[in-house]
Amino acid sequence: MNLPMGIPYLAAALIPVFFLLMMIMKFGWGVAKAAPYGMLIALIIAVFVFKAEVPAMGYEAGKGAWNAATILLVVWPAVFSYELSCESKGF
Q: What is the spatial distance between Cα 23 and Cα 54, in angstroms, rounded to a whole number?
């Protein structure tokens, strides 16, 4: 697969990241509110700038959700254990 490269494509790829940072840090949006907009912007850029196909984007979004789920299966029990030990004065 040949991906286009260059400064304009790098700038286009960074737009969703800067959007999320701006919405969260400058405007005080929560991540749960800003993330869907960031995803929408990333999808629009993928279609119009990088000429991505819709089925491929769905597949990659599914892979991202799967990777996030495996990470959360580690993080949530760790946070729960920490909170439980703090409440029971374990530390």
A: 26
